[in-house]
Amino acid sequence: MGQSILEALNVRVVGSGEKVVVLAHGFGTDQSAWQRILTFLMPYYRVVLYDLVCAGSVNPDCFDVRRYTSLDAFVDDLLHILDALGVDRCFYVGHSVSAMIGILAAIRRPELFSKLILIGASPRFLNDKDYHGGFDQGEIEKVFSAMEANYEAWVNGFAPLAVGADVPTVVREFSRTLFNMRPDITLCVSRMVFNSDLRGVLGLVKVPCCIIQTAKDVSVPASVAMYLKSHLGGRNTVEMLPIEGHLPHLSAPALLAPVLRRHLR
After folding, report:
1. H or E segment at 104?
2. Three-state SS across 45-64?
3. Which end of the chain is more exposed for a tag (fewer CB within 10 A), N or C?
């Protein structure tokens, strides 16, 4: 990346407390997505925030299309950040694709993680025999085609669906971070994420996990949370939030925060 990874990915450490909590954002957002949650955590924890390399807040020159062909390169980034900060133990909160990044990181370096908190997580978005991921291949290809044909129109249609709840300020915020992303990078990462399948490695995760899922999520069916609970290899719990949407940290922070606090122990 040329510059240090801490600079390139806008790493920040805020808050006070002995325990370290890493907040890792999902696809289409950046670390600002956690702003409404931070006030609930900063008095009690040292909080590490960073931007995924595909985020619009990161110099697009950092995104090497040849390197970021799988989630493994994103796992490398996370582990390099923790090593550079001297973190030897942390709680990891990952949303959407970052939930899967956390799972892979915990397989590679289990000693680093006290617990994984996985929000809106899915090991595979595509339906398969005896598995309901939420999307058929044809549906996904239509999404990719819509992105390529008219990125602005796709964002304007996708953002309200993802937010789910009738919270116009959150729709505007999610739209802003999607528009900040370079469309070709958005498409590249979307193809990689939607074609990923981590079901075969879930049993290798021995770190305790808390799976947080909303009652209705356009991206992740509620049944996926139960699939994760039964297939992850450690002690796992599921927290179902009685709300709609894929971004509860944006749309319902006051509901999500106490759940997070309860599991950050």
Report:
1. helix 97-108
2. CEEEEECCCCCCCCCHHHCC
3. C
Mean pLDDT of 237-254: 97
Compute the distance between CA of residue 40 and CA of residue 177 in angstroms, rounded to an integer. Answer: 23
Establish whether 230 is a catalytic residue: no
Candidates 217, 219, 251, 263; catalytic one: 217
Copy the structure tokens of residue 259.
Answer: 């759940």
Give 214-234 as a 3 state SS string. Answer: EEECCCCCHHHHHHHHHHCCC
Q: For residue range 64-91, what is the model confidence (pLDDT) as tens digits? A: 999 999 999 999 999 999 999 999 999 9
**Residue from 25, 32, 95, 96 carrying the catalytic annotation:** 96
Distance between CA atoms of 167 and 170, rounded to whole angstroms?
5
Q: Is 246 considered catalytic here?
A: yes
Picking from 263, 209, 213, 211, the residue whose alpha carbon sits closest to that of residue 242 is: 213
pLDDT given for residue 3 in this prediction: 66
CA distances from 181 to 115, 130, 172, 188, 254 (A): 30, 35, 15, 11, 28
Does the annotation count 25 as an active-site position? Answer: no
Q: Which of 25, 95, 246, 263 is catalytic?
A: 246
Residues 179-225: tens digit of each pLDDT: 999 999 999 999 999 999 999 999 999 999 999 999 999 999 999 99
State how beta strands 12-14 and 46-50 pair: antiparallel
pTM more than 0.90: yes
